[in-house]
Specification:
alpha+beta; two-stranded antiparallel ribbon; 6 strands; globular; Methyltransferase_TRM13; tRNA:m(4)X modification enzyme TRM13
């Protein structure tokens, strides 16, 4: 149990204890907020011993809260507009799965309806209205889509096969998670990795962000 600070005005713990953060499918931006909480705990003298977060719903991420912003901008040279494009395309990783295509065939649709996928876009911030950022020409810049409009056509994906859209959607999810991985390693100071913990047939959201303290003893058989 944590002991209260000796100085009531101090935010530091007098006797911090090691903690481990564990969550199953922490939706979208909630993963970023949880990682920021762990950073705050360490800043107050606490110790994070381990992390195991099953990631999901990348379409519900917000760039303002995304922990990988420094990596996204400094390492990749990308912007908030690029993040919004990638965020929307993550829906293809669920909406274009074989199971989703079976439902599509039963409905008689020609293309996967990614607007009905498991990854819902993040709620617009105040003042942004009910629009989503989509891909535009290099000259005109990003264009705006009305909320609920399928994003495939906006990204020039009319000629894409469902398999290609599925592959691109997975890559977009991995790109967002790579920024989180960099944050855990560089800011939290933990060893970390992204692992697949089950088959996609069991769950399309099968990526686990796992991290452990650098001084953790090696596990022996």
């Amino acid at each position: 149990m944590l002991e209260p600070p000796k100085d009531p005005t101090s935010r530091a713990f007098s006797a911090p204890v090691p903690v481990a953060a564990i969550s199953k499918h922490l939706c979208g931006v909630a993963t970023d907020l949880a990682l920021r909480c762990l950073d705050g705990y360490q800043a107050r003298g606490g110790k994070v011993q381990g992390v195991a977060i099953a990631l999901c719903c990348h379409g519900a991420c917000h760039y303002e809260d995304y922990v990988g912003r420094a990596w996204w901008e400094d390492t990749l040279g990308l912007s908030a507009a690029h993040f919004e494009q990638v965020r929307q395309m993550t829906a293809w990783a669920t909406g274009c799965r074989p199971a989703a295509r079976v439902q599509m065939k039963e409905r008689g649709d020609a293309k996967p309806d990614v607007s009905q996928s498991d990854d819902k876009p993040g709620k617009p911030e105040d003042g942004e209205g009910s629009t989503q950022l989509a891909h535009g020409s290099e000259q005109s810049g990003p264009t705006m889509l009305k909320e609920g409009e399928a994003s495939g056509a906006a990204f020039g994906a009319e000629s894409f096969t469902p398999e290609k859209m599925l592959h691109l959607g997975r890559m977009c999810k991995q790109l967002i998670d790579a920024g989180r991985l960099a944050y855990v390693r560089e800011v939290l100071g933990l060893q970390a990795d992204l692992v697949q913990y089950c088959l996609e047939e069991v769950s399309a959201e099968n990526c686990l962000l796992v991290a452990w303290a650098r001084d953790t003893p090696d596990v022996k058989d």
